[in-house]
Amino acid sequence: MRRKLPGEAPPSAGGGSLPSEADLAQLSTAISAGEDLGPFVRRAFACGRPEPLLSSLRAVARDREAEIEELCRAHFHDFIRAVDDLRSLLADADVLKGSLSASHSALLSSAAPLLASLESFLAARALAGNLSSALASSRRCVRLLALAARANEHLQAGNHSLYLALRAVDAIDRDLASGPEPLPLPALRRMLLSLVPAVRVHAEREISREFADWMVSIRAASRHLGQVAIGRSAAARQRQEELRSKHRPLEESITLDDDGAGDLDDFAAATASSDVADGAAAASFDLTQLYRAMHIHQTLALGERFKKYYLENRKLQLTSDFDVIAATPFLESHQVFFAQIAGFFIVEDRVFRTGGGLTSRGDVDALWEAAVGKMISVLEDNFSRMQTANHLLLITDYAALLAATMRRYSYPVGMLLDVLAKHRDKYHDLLLADCRRQVVEALAADKFDQMLMRKEYEYSMNVLAFGIQSSDITPAFPYVALFSCTVPDICRIVRSFIEDSVSFMAHGGGGDTYAAVKKYLGRILSEVVDVSIQKLVDSGSGMSVSQAMQVAANMSVMERACEFFTRHAAQLCGVPLRAVERGRRDFPLCKSRDAAEALLLRLLCSKIDEFMLQSDGVSWMADDPPAGGNEYANEVTIYLETLTSTAQQILPLAVLRRVLVAVLAHISERIVGLFLNDSVKRFSAGAVVGIDTDLKMFEAFAESMSNLFGESGKDSAANEMKAALVEARQLVNLLMSNSPENFLNPVIREKSYNKLDYRKVAVISEKFRDTSESYFSTFGTRGARQNPKKKSLDTLIKRLREAS
């Protein structure tokens, strides 16, 4: 028998222990709260004592039953009434059920025809829906087949209809992709799905082939297009130059009249017409195939790829255009080279402006920079090896026309023009070398005789063309010019140089055209003409006096020619002549002019020396002077008179005056030299008188020559030429003086003998002293006066000897 545990409830009558009140309260609370009783059950079984739990549950059930009984007792009467009402309600429900059954039977009997009609309607509506769906599918298939047929027709029509074929294919693709339901014909759907990519591939292939053909054709057309555009630029430049030359006389006036304003309008109109002409040239090529290819590729969603493809191909074309000059010399191929590049970028400009974004400004600028770099490289290389000015000018002129053409299309050409300007010194050096050769040849071919012109056109071509006429009156023909043929030949060479220089500077030289041309004009005059004439003069080359005189005469004419050169350069550069006249410069051929005069003087002095060699016939110990002077003096005087009569016809009076003064000074020096000659041991007073007579002849010649220089300069010319003989005159006067020792007086010497050298006077006096007796017998009185004069001469000799 089990032992009772402490605190355990006493067993119930059923054999289990009775639950305590706490357990009952806790269990009742959990049941009332609707809590889970699982924990209670698990705890009871875990303890191995489920009986108390069952007892507690039975107790709770008894409590609930007690409560229900209490409740039923409290509401018994209400319950009875509810049962009665329920019974009454059931009776009413039976009646209603019978009524509904009768109504249902009546409804079924009356609705039977309507149900039959409804079934017929539903069947008909289902049929109509099926027919509508079939018709819609049929229409869709017909539309798709029509689109396919239209696409096939456009494909057969040629490449110009490819865009329409692609639009039809795109419509088929959109219908198949966005239709409400798939096509009921799987075969048709498969056929159409295979058609769409096939047509697109075919369209891309055909348009790519057409684009390749266009690339070939546009390259061939670009050369012609560039030639036309550059030719029109050349024509526009020619028109501008003609209008500028027409307008130049108006520039010389201070104000413009109405006609002048009209000329300015003509100039502006010429410029505008050249722009229109270039626009017409640009419109003469067709970009339809290019634009069609672009649109086709955009339709195929390949627009960006086509842009890259176009740009890459154009770059390759430009690179191949650079190779035009590889097979032939640049001089022969430069026009084709520049024309090809010009046409290429005219096309690119048109594509950029009308291509709808096919190319960007950056793409075109990159191509242009590559082309400019290549052109600069080619020009630098060829210019460095070029040795002919005309060749360099041809290339420079065409490159300048290219720059003018591309500037009209807003391409920057500054770097290209800078290269042309950088080589202007080399161009002018080559041009100067050509001119130097021509000038040397002209000088070598000239016999330096006065030029004979038989016809008026010869006068116009050789004189008026260079403004070297001495009078505005047309002379009678045949006409003998004051110059030789060298002068017009050199003028033609210099004029051609000016025109070539202006052409280079105006079209490719950059900067101030007139200033640069004036600089190079100075170079050709000083470095070529002046140096060449100076070399000719310095060499002598067996030149006669008449030839040397002609050279000197040529130089005076060249002074007028140099003024013409300056005016001609100014006119070609568009500079007003009044501005040129304000900036007159010195004669640039002064060195050769001075050399020519020096040569003439040297030859004249040589000729005089030949006559002076006849002074050996002078009787130095004669008691009586020769009648009419010595023979050499007569011959020199005759020669000078003959020479002067010829020289005054061709030489400017200033030049003739300088030459005569120098010749007379040489004669004076030679006369003094006669007294100093070692062959003359002594001389008599008669010889001195003869020399005095010779001097008087020369002084008379100088006096007669002074009439050539006009009344205003007559006295000064006579004094100047007599002054050239002053040394010989002072020496003769000293020798003929009664008081030679006055030479020692500073005052008298400064006044009467300032040109004499005391050493020369000492030597000559020594030779004269030995004959002093005869001298005094001739010019003095006899007796007492002889001794003082002899004494004066001895005193002079003694003092001069002491001074030396």
TrEMBL record:
Q: Which Gene3D superfamilies match?
A: Dsl1p vesicle tethering complex, Tip20p subunit, domain D, Exocyst complex subunit Sec15 C-terminal domain, N-terminal subdomain
* InterPro entries per record: EXOC6/Sec15 (IPR007225), EXOC6/Sec15_C (IPR046361), EXOC6/Sec15_C_dom1 (IPR042045), EXOC6_Sec15_N (IPR048359), EXOC6PINT-1/Sec15/Tip20_C_dom2 (IPR042044)
Q: Where is this region: Disordered?
A: 1-20
Q: What is this protein called?
A: Exocyst complex component
Q: Which gene encodes it?
A: LOC100830415
| Similarity comment: family membership | Belongs to the SEC15 family.
Q: Which PANTHER family match?
A: EXOCYST COMPLEX COMPONENT SEC15B, SEC15
Q: Name one Pfam family in it.
A: EXOC6_Sec15_N
Cellular location(s): Cytoplasm, Cytosol
State the protein's purpose.
Component of the exocyst complex involved in the docking of exocytic vesicles with fusion sites on the plasma membrane during regulated or polarized secretion. Involved in polarized cell growth and organ morphogenesis. During cytokinesis, involved in cell plate initiation, cell plate maturation and formation of new primary cell wall.
Q: Which superkingdom?
A: Eukaryota
Keyword Cytoplasm among UniProt keywords: yes
**Organism (species):** Brachypodium distachyon
UniProt domain Exocyst complex subunit EXOC6/Sec15 C-terminal: residue ranges: 416-767
Q: Which UniProt keywords apply?
A: Cytoplasm, Exocytosis, Transport
Cellular component aspect of the GO annotation: cytosol; exocyst
Q: Which GO terms describe its biological process?
A: acceptance of pollen; exocytosis; Golgi to plasma membrane transport; intracellular protein transport; pollen germination; pollen tube growth; vesicle tethering involved in exocytosis
Q: Does the keyword Transport apply?
A: yes
Which segments constitute the Exocyst complex component EXOC6/Sec15 N-terminal domain? 57-230
